[in-house]
Amino acid sequence: MIKKRIMAPGPTEVPPEVLAAGGMPILHHRTPEFRAIFAEVSEKIKYVFQTSQPVLTLAAGGTGGMEAIVVNLSAPGEKVLVISAGVFGERWAKIAEGLERKVVRISVPYGKAVTTDEIKKAIDANPDAVLLCGTLSETSTGVEHPIQEIAAITKASRTLFAVDAISGLAACKLKMDEWSIDAVVSGTQKGLMMPPGLALIALSERAWVAVKAKKSPKFYWSFESALAKLTEEKLPDTPWTPNVSLVRQLQASLLLIHAEGIENIWARHELLAKATQAAMQALGLTLFAEHPSVSVTSVQSPEGIDSGDIVKKMRAEWGISIVGGQGSMLGKIFRIGHLGYCDRTDVLMTVAALECVLSELGVPITTGEGVKAAQSIFLKS
Ligand code: PMP
Prior knowledge:
Layout: E1 5-6, H1 16-22, H2 32-49, E2 55-59, H3 62-73, E3 79-84, H4 87-98, E4 102-107, H5 116-125, E5 129-135, E6 137-138, E7 143-144, H6 147-155, E8 160-164, H7 176-179, E9 183-187, E10 198-203, H8 205-213, H9 223-231, H10 244-260, H11 262-282, E11 296-300, H12 307-318, E12 320-321, E13 323-324, E14 333-337, H13 344-360, H14 369-380
Parallel strand pairs: 1-12, 3-4, 3-5, 5-8, 8-9
Antiparallel strand pairs: 2-10, 6-7, 9-10, 11-14, 13-14
Bound molecules: 4'-deoxy-4'-aminopyridoxal-5'-phosphate.
4'-deoxy-4'-aminopyridoxal-5'-phosphate is lined by residues 10, 61-63, 88, 135, 139, 164, 166-167, 187, 196.
């Protein structure tokens, strides 16, 4: 028997309380009972975004939420800047191009973080850009981008700054209001410790002004429709049928998040990341990311080894789902997710199993060295 465990950067494992909430009977979404839950969730999620602005809940995956941002904050033919530093940065570009926006890429080599100089240059060269799209934690490379510093630049410009925090929310430090970010989108299957299926979006005051002024075609994605239902009725509501079970699960997950505290959640992720990074380095492996994210550790595959073989053995023989590289990084890196419902024991277990897998693949490591390095980080904490 092999137990299945997820150590991927999403979907992540789901705590029993949250799983149980998903098994509750379906409520009709127009009942006072459901709307009271939606009201609670819509209020409590603001803390996770660190915003006082309304947070919209859309029945969509993360990509749907990204598309909704482009639809609402820009119009066809308008210029959109995109930080393209990995598969998910590039996804912004593809969405915007698909929606006939004029895309200008700020291309960053995979594994590196964008610099503030690159952002300044792009903003100065494109004063007509209505939107800059970036990624908090670029899941494909394992890089965390300097969101606070970028927002300080966009704040002083007319370009709105939208952040994909799909794998970053409730893991990486993020203070939407304090940092002056204009739009944040997240999904449920990562730091929020839930199944996939909801996109959560918050906008700054100036972004709401832009939404109301923008004449771009939309219907299902209309933020104005969502806001009207969220704020104009006696109890919050949604324009279309919401994902009722996921909203109930979000209620359960927010109870856990509020009990732990967002600062403690950020600190836990930092600790898990530090231990994972130390373990990889103690095994003589090279980290792929120059500015590693606290939600995922990306590691270069050892010389002569296809990272896909490591991933397959981890899953087949140890029941642990880690992931390989995407796009141009296919076969070259493997990634360990340590976000959401994840603790120190998960990290120790994963490193120990990985040591066995690497040994069996003939990689010259000393088993135990990685575990020892992780233990030492935990013992010091
Ligand atoms: N952005 C990032 C940073 C992600 O990690 C993901 C999911 N891996 C997405 C966007 C896309 O989200 P979804 O798969 O829910 O559409």
